[in-house]
Amino acid sequence: MQNRIDKLFVEKKSQVLSIFFTAGFPKLNDTISILEALEHSDADLIEIGIPFSDPLADGPVIQQSSMTALENGINLSLLFTQLKSLRTVTQKPVLLMGYLNSVLQFGIEEFYNACSEVGVDGVILPDLPLEEFEDSHKEFANKLNIKVVFLISPDTKPERVKLLDEASGGFLYLLSSNSTTGGSKGVSKKLILPDVKNPVLIGFGIKGQKEFSEACDIANGAIIGTAFIELLLGPIDFKKDITKFTSNIKIKQTIS
Q: Is 201 domain-assigned?
């Protein structure tokens, strides 16, 4: 069976919108409700954050959402329980994004098996070293057709980019700048798409239509996390407000 991430990029080469949200936030049992709303939105790809107590790559908004989710009682085992109904609410590609410690605590093989059982298509672990992926993760990911996405930054050396591109599945995650998530820098005018075989999505500092448009001028699309988490902070009608959030990004992009 073709992986849903691969299928997406075969069918869609540009303006791919990926939305990130934190599992168990704003309330413990909101994960599936948010997924259901995203299924009926203009999001093309969905990333679910695994809350962690020390998320080094994340800015204050996503950090706080992780702390709230942990206080709500979320953990990886409970998340997989919540995701048992994943494929009854969405057929869009779904990835889990988190930190290596959570996977090690759960068990590497057990983690990939659980991803496969619930229908998760890919994994993003920003602190997973390439060498450790090759030694301990690649076998399970390949066996179960789960894509492991690697990150590159504007300063990643070309030879390292080549290695990460060869190892990465689904797409490459290009940081817009050397900062944490939610940064104010946006997409640098000096950002250059590296020569890679994988589709590329740009993340970090993508707040709305303007930054999404700038990212799409360079890459296949972009990832929005902090701005979406901020949306979830206020009084919200998931179906109505999430649909409006994503459509504002996409509609303006097509007429600009």
A: no
Number of compact structural domains in the chain: 1
Among 42, 44, 58, 211, the one annotated catalytic = 58
- Is there a catalytic annotation at residue 47? yes
Q: Does the annotation mark 230 as catalytic?
A: no
Which among 47, 121, 211, 214 is annotated as catalytic?
47
C-alpha neighbours within 13 Å on the C-beta side of residue 195:
2
Backbone dihedral angles phi then psi of residue 98, each to the nearest 5 degrees: -165, -160
Res 69: pLDDT: 96
What would the mean pLDDT of 124-134 be, rounded to a whole number? 96
- The end-to-end CA distance of the chain, in Å, is 37
Residue 83: both structure tokens together = 């995701």
Domain interval for residue 65: 4-10+17-150+219-255
Alpha helices in 134-202 (DSSP H): 138-143, 158-167
CB atoms within 10 A of CB 154: 14
Q: Return d(Cα 215, Cα 207) in angstroms, integer.
A: 11
Q: Which amino acid is at 1?
A: M
Q: In this predicted structure, what is the pLDDT of residue 256?
A: 39
